[in-house]
Amino acid sequence: MKTPLQIDNDPVSNIAAEQETRRAADSSERAYNTIRKLLVEFQLKPEERINEMQLAKSLSISRTPIREALNRLASEGFVSLTPNRGFFVRSLSTEGLIDLYELRSIIECSAFRLMCERASDEDIGRLQSYWANIVDGYRDQPPDDILAEDEGFHILIAELSGNPEIVAQLNAINARIRFIRRIQIEHSTHDKTLVAAHSQIVDAATRRAAGEGMELLRQHIELTVSATQQALKDALLKVYSRDEPRARTRRGLTTSSS
With helix as H, strand as E and coil as C, how does 13-41 read? Predict the structure, then answer.
């Protein structure tokens, strides 16, 4: 009989458990990367219900890592979860987009003002360092990296405001517009000169020029939403025009001229 100090120490069992944990993590990551690629390439259409069993079968894994990947994608705003119905691809509708960007502008401008009032010189230095470390290669990165670094820049300003509620609200907005922003970054409307805007915002922060920085942020966000609207229109055209030839074939029609 074991005393309270005795602990099972079976090396074989421990190794097997570690390997199983590692396999599960690998499967979840593979599922996440695959589904995310399907989403950003529009292989899964907006508002389409995601078939978990079909995904599990195609990837030769169980539904558990599929569900883990979908929950992660839901937290990032790429899919939505409807209780008792499952996961759905996010809509590409522009409905509500303006409202979200308007709220984002209000929150970020307020965060910048508070940062100028409250942040220490060392804190402002964190913003300078963050941007200095990424600015040179910013333009030439994959869209996912640009999106992550851009979000990080704006979240850091929110953090330096000293108000955790601002950070929470901005994170919530980012989750709702992330999928749409990912589309826009890859679109031709993505303005590479926005790099200069980030540099100007950092310069205003360094000088604690609150009014100037707030105006720069407002203009920056307005340009982004305008470009995003155009990118969404083109994305919708791409998705549904791609389906038209298949629909014509199903109706017994041909695409060739008579």
Answer: HHHHHHHHHHHHHHHHHHHHHHHHHHHHC
